[in-house]
Amino acid sequence: MTFPTFTSSQTDPRARGKELGTHLREQVTANLTGYTDLFTVAGATAGQVRAWGERALEASAAWAPPLAEEIAGIAAGAGLDPWQVAVVNARTEILAGIDMVGHGECSTSVVLPKDGPPRTVQTWDWHDHLRDAPVLWEYEQASGRVVRTFTEAGTLAKIGVTSAGLGVHFNILRHDSDSADLGVPVHLIARRILDEASTVEEATEIARSARVSASTVITVVTESQAASIEISPAGVAAIPPGPDGVLLHCNHFLDPDLAAGERHATERPGTYRRMRHLEEHVEGLSVADVNGRALAMLSHEPDGAPVCAHPDLSQPINQRWETVATIGLDLPAGRLRVHQGGPCQVTEATWQTC
Predict the structure, then answer these.
(1) Nearest to 71 by CA among 22, 27, 18, 32
(2) Quick one: pLDDT at residue 220?
(3) What is the pLDDT of residues 290-307, one digit of tens each?
(4) Buried b (16+ CB within 10 A) or exposed e, 71-92
């Protein structure tokens, strides 16, 4: 099984968005429906969701006008209003506004070896009713930079890699300062980093320039650098690798100042168990083969850390979690290696290259 792919032929933001929205109309609409259902179960009203989408669109237009144009283009192609596509891009912010916290979420490993390219892998956990949300999207900018991203149809970026030799991983965080005063969607921060940054320092400056209302961590990797950029309304911190070149992140803040406002781990401490699992399997996470790195992530609940998640179908949709994808970055090639599903389903033949 593989995720759908799309390659844009347009470089103008609105035209590129319209082309994608037209081609992926059903998937974008299905994602909007899936998120609307999730927000409803979590307690949001239709009026709240629309207002949040409109605020997110305003914040996006003020911070990155071309990205707001691209959202408008996707909406035109998919037969939706721009605020509806903004809702899909701002789902992290809306979930923070609803104050929803869940068991699942992602685990990321980056190893910078003394020789050879970075070795990365992450699991991407999400609600099982949205397992068909992802798409692998390739687009080229007017500058000639090519970006390839694992994202959700209609969302401008998530995990990705560029022909400029920079890649990003993506994990959600929660902080006491998160609020319903919608700011710039964190997925748009990832998009601007992929579009514009060539170094960890440039990526960090992009993150610092956005007023956000929700928290996340974007782990940025280049040939010789890496940092987990923790983002929250309370501030931004860049966490470097250790002296051994290892950088691990789950769903709790590592920066001491930001950790004082930790929300996710105080309610869902499984993130600490997942981090311990990664720490105990650094040797496997350091191998050159992405399949081997994925297998080093393998751990189920209740046997150990829930790095590889499977949904409990007795729970409501806002409390059901599944490892939808396992992803590694191939920086020298500017490519993503993607497996549909969790580490327990990985084989040499299940990897999709984008």
Answers:
(1) 18
(2) 98
(3) 999 999 999 997 766 788
(4) bbbbbbbbebbbbbbbbbbbbb
Backbone angles phi, psi at 115, to 5 degrees: -135, 140
Q: Are 296 and 281 in contact (CB under 8 A)?
A: yes
Q: Is the CB of residue 102 less than 8 Å from the CB of residue 302?
A: no
**Sign of the torsion angle spanned by Cα atoms 54, 59, 61, 65:** negative
Q: Could you read off the pLDDT of 256-280 as tens digits, one per residue?
A: 999 999 987 776 778 999 999 999 9
- Taking every pair of Cα atoms in the chain, the longest distance, rounded to a whole number of angstroms, is 54
Half-sphere exposure (CA, 13 Å, Cβ side) for 105?
27
On the question of pLDDT at 130 being above 90, the answer is no
pLDDT of residue 303: 64
Structure tokens at 337: 């290696």
The pTM of this model reads: 0.96
Q: Averaged over 118-127, what is the pLDDT?
A: 93
- List the single range of 36-40, 143-147, 233-237, 321-325 with lowest mean pLDDT: 321-325
Sign of the torsion formed by the C-alpha atoms of 36, 41, 45 and 49: negative
Residue 67: both structure tokens together:
């990205």
Residue 62 has which token pair?
């003020």
Domains with residue ranges and CATH for the chain: 5-98 (no CATH), 107-353 (3.60.60.10)
205-236 as b/e: b if 16+ CB within 10 A: ebbeebebbbbbbbbbbbeebbbbbbbbbbeb
